Every structure is written in structure tokens, then in C-alpha cells.
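Thread title: Can someone regenerate the structure for this chain?

I was given the following input by a collaborator and told the matching C-alpha cells would be attached. They weren't. Posting the sequence so someone can regenerate them.
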Amino acid sequence: MYYGFGHMGYFGWGWMALFWVGFILLIIWLVKTNTESGKQGKNPLEILKERYARGEVAQTQYHEMRRDIEKKE
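Best answer:
Regenerated them for you:
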């Protein structure tokens, strides 16, 4: 019988919906892994600056740690 869904019927629409959901999830996963891999390449001084900006490190600690990092580089 013809129910207005073309020659594939409900079965075809279901597979098409699964395809698009999978495709969208794949794109989201690729974007997420790409942005996470960029975080791993930071050097210690950049990490220290970020921690200071977030308020995790006091000013005196920041300057001491910065001097230590610059000595090692």
C-alpha cells in the first residue's frame, strides 16, 4: 500500500533519521576532540598565567613560580 511516504515507507524514514543523528553526533565528537587536543600543547608559563588569571595563584606565588619556570627554560 502507498501511505504517502514514498517507496521506502516508515522503514526508510527511520534509517534516514538514524543516519542524520549519527552524522551530527560524529561532527560533534570531531569538534570536541579537536578542541581538547589543542589544550595539551600549552607550556608551563601559559598554564601559570591562566591559573593566576582565574585567581588560583596569589601574586607572590605567581612571581616566584614564574622565576622558577624561566630558570628551567
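Residues 1-41 form one domain.
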